[in-house]
């Protein structure tokens, strides 16, 4: 920029002098002095511009650093995406530590006023295997029940991070991912993932609502609450998934892909194929004037034995359903999302669930790395469950919906540390209108490396 300004001033000085000025040495001297004066003014102007826009340049630099950090391994979900979407050239390792404090607000007199803490730590690695594949391992350690045991029955838990409540290291995921050179080596469209897998890492993704350590915390906003994923109590189990991209890699706009998966229904690594969890998803990624939208539609079936709500003698039923997960950028700073799911009324307490909300990046208040999130969700109380809720769970579910709201603000302290304030509100918990509404406050801290 500096060289360009000097060139412009030099040319302007030459043009401003009369043609006859080239006749003598005095005119040449005057021309040099004029150029020097203009160059000095150029330097002063550049310094002034830099000083005036120093905060903006600093913010842009921090935002670029944040973007680079987000493209690297931040938490286990980001690392998992990296293992599935790009071939690592060398061994990669990373980890995160997440700390949560959640408390029940004073307006929830039925449940007392208390606060509890929990933590989880993840260590994950990615290593290249073969010409087109990666292997991914993730170990997890965690402790604390949080406030969940103090709450009444709810269709959505307040903290989706609560998994392993014991201070020991467990292998949560261990799988191999590879692509196949079909139709050619540059445009590889077919891929395969096999091993111990979290199905939510492959299905029901969402750009604005999919990570309990970086985005919303409540279960209903992390994944579709109307999908009964297979696996163990935390959703992990043996499985296999295949995906195919229908559009060419040379198509820089529309991207259409399909994915199917089969996972162990109960996560005990016994009789894995007898009663599996099956799911198929169609994903569409489409830019609109530079704003990215992702649209995912899926159907699923959980073939583990289920009992009919109205007739306990029928205990060999399956649960099944369908749904979608959408996220759409509406500006460079805002992304909106929506989810909807429906499941079998004979075996499910909440037969359909929907959620919607968004996230805003803090550029407008000069905090380009901070994020503000807001969401509302509702679980519809199955009419069959209303009739038998007193017998099954000891209370009368007389409401039509359980309503759930959450808002968080994630403060980017530095490139390795974020601190989030979080607020949740539950009305008609478990479908019981006579229960007081629940207000939950919380603080989340995440350290990544």
Compact summary:
The chain is an alpha+beta fold. Helices cover 19% and strands 45% of the residues.
List the helices and strands and how they pair.
Elements: H1 2-16, H2 25-52, H3 54-71, H4 76-85, E1 92-104, E2 115-129, E3 133-143, E4 166-183, E5 188-197, H5 219-222, E6 237-245, E7 255-263, E8 277-288, E9 291-306, E10 317-329, E11 334-343, E12 350-362, E13 367-381, H6 383-393, E14 401-414, E15 417-427, E16 438-448
Antiparallel strand pairs: 1-2, 1-16, 2-3, 3-4, 4-5, 5-6, 6-7, 7-8, 8-9, 9-10, 10-11, 11-12, 12-13, 13-14, 14-15, 15-16
Helix pairs in contact: 1-2
Please describe what this structure looks like.
With 449 residues, the protein is of the alpha+beta class. It folds into two domains: 2-52, no CATH class; 55-448, Porin, CATH 2.40.160. Helix content is 19%, strand content 45%. It has six helices and 16 strands. It has helices at residues 2-16, 25-52, 54-71, 76-85, 219-222, 383-393, and strands spanning 92-104, 115-129, 133-143, 166-183, 188-197, 237-245, 255-263, 277-288, 291-306, 317-329, 334-343, 350-362, 367-381, 401-414, 417-427, 438-448. It has a 16-stranded antiparallel beta barrel with strand order 1-2-3-4-5-6-7-8-9-10-11-12-13-14-15-16. The longest helix is centred in the N-terminal third of the chain and has 28 residues, at 25-52. The chain is globular, with a radius of gyration of 28 Å. Residues 8-23 and 62-72 have low confidence and may be disordered.
